[in-house]
Amino acid sequence: MYRDKESMIDDLLGKMTPEQMAGQLVVFGMNGTVITPDMVEMITKYHLGGVRISQKARLVTLNTLHSYSKPGDQHTDMTLRSVSPPRGTAKDLSFPNHPPVLDTGEYAAMLNQLRTYSRERELGIPVHFVIDQEGNGTDDLLGGARLFPSPMGLAGTGDPALAYRVGRAIGAQTYAVGIDVVQM
């Protein structure tokens, strides 16, 4: 056991190869809602440090799911459901084609699986997850999350306490799903 965080960090850095150190500096983008073999390889083979995630950057329909798969890939029920458009959110009308969306529980399960791959690496250092959740149509966490106005809109209210409460709510929602860094 370590006496403090600095001791743990020093010990881990002392055990890391140059390749592992370089990999920890890389944040790779994951678009969509399907864990691909390439993403697993980036985490396990190349020691990826972080994942910048977006559910909606890759618009997918059931008819084009094969475009994002390798030959022989098997799709789970969750994968097939994830290509369905969201229902009951303000984002239903945001895009001409609906992006694939997972609900917050499914999204947390997907991120936990990616984090498990990273913890199974030699040193067990988990990847960190980065997301945009700044309102005004740029939110990446959609299904089941409470959506808020943009920071500029909140500033326009002249109510700093409201902006603070919204920031805290966004932080609580994203933390519950497993997000480590929120870009706003």
Give a summary of the structure in a few sentences:
With 184 residues, the protein is α/β, with parallel strands linked by helices.
Tally of separate domains: 1
Globally, the shape reads globular
Our count of helices gives 7
Architecture, according to CATH?
A: Alpha-Beta Barrel
Q: End-to-end span in angstroms?
A: 36 Å
Q: Class by helix and strand content?
A: alpha/beta
Relevant CATH superfamily: Glycoside hydrolase, family 3, N-terminal domain
- Portion of residues in beta strands equals 5-15%
Uncertain runs are 58-63, 89-96
Describe the structure.
The longest helix is centred in the last third of the chain and has 18 residues, at 160-177. The chain has one domain (13-183): TIM Barrel (Alpha-Beta Barrel). It is built from 7 helices and 4 strands, in the order H-H-E-H-E-H-H-E-H-H-E. It has helices at residues 5-15, 18-24, 37-44, 77-82, 104-119, 151-156, 160-177, and strands spanning 27-31, 50-54, 128-132, 181-183. The chain is α/β, with parallel strands linked by helices and 184 residues long.
